Amino acid sequence: MGPTPAPAPSLSTRDLTIRFGGHIAVNAVSADFYPGTLTVIVGPNGAGKTTYFNLMSGQLPATSGSVHLNGVDITGTGAARRTQLGIGRAFQLTNLFPNLTVLENVRLAVQSHQRVGMNMFSVWSGHKELIERAGHYLERVALQTKRDARVAALSHGDKRKLEVAILLALEPAVMMFDEPTAGMSVDEVPVVLDLIHQVKAERNKTILLVEHKMDVVRSLADRIIVLHNGALVADGNPAAVMASQIVQEAYLGTPEHV
Ligand SMILES: Nc1ncnc2c1ncn2[C@@H]1O[C@H](COP(=O)(O)OP(=O)(O)OP(=O)(O)O)[C@@H](O)[C@H]1O
After folding, report:
1. Is the ipTM of this complex over 0.85?
2. Transmembrane region positions (predicted)?
3. CA of residue 247 to ligand 1 center, whole Å
4. Residues 6+ apart with CB under 8 A from 199
């Protein structure tokens, strides 16, 4: 028997770059992201973290470089198609249907994942199961008591929990979270962090986070990537990255982030 083969990355970027006029917001970033690993992307304000996320999820087109999902080049693929292919992103709040209930929003996500569709034979037979499944995801984010509330009436924190429920319902191989606890009250934060811990413990998802809060980074990260002025300046295990000179220098002047 030979050695165990190295795991294949699920998501990769190669020299990924975007320019806005003369400004290079993401500059030749190459990285591989693996199933079972939670990577946190950190960096000072304006470093390019959100833009890098947007390039991977397809919200922005790359100026140059490439994005690969399971070895397939998806650089020219739009955001909706990338979601179908398994790149899920929470906290775009635009994903929510404000005039539908909490339960209906999750039910639509379950339905889209199962591709039940609205055909005459499946719609009634599958309905109860869809509702049960949607209820399960609402329980996981502690929103079951608000299942019949209209989304427009939810607090900001509850909307974010709902986004997580929708992300879980889509069961993507790659899960991207933009500052998952931003704008949440202190009692809401542990619900979402516990949930990310649980998903991480299943060890089959590739999880990416953009996060400013260093306590959140320390509690969740298997790996940290540091962006500075659009470039990747450090990448590795949390202890080594946080101790590296380049990170200390990159953060100079913004010590509240470290
Ligand atoms: N659509 C755009 N048009 C022009 N410039 C943009 C656009 N989007 C981002 N930028 C610029 O690109 C740079 C990176 O922005 P980005 O939002 O990715 O940083 P960030 O690291 O996510 O910052 P923060 O931590 O403040 O959210 C910034 O200088 C920003 O002004």
Report:
1. yes
2. none
3. 20
4. 168, 175, 205, 207
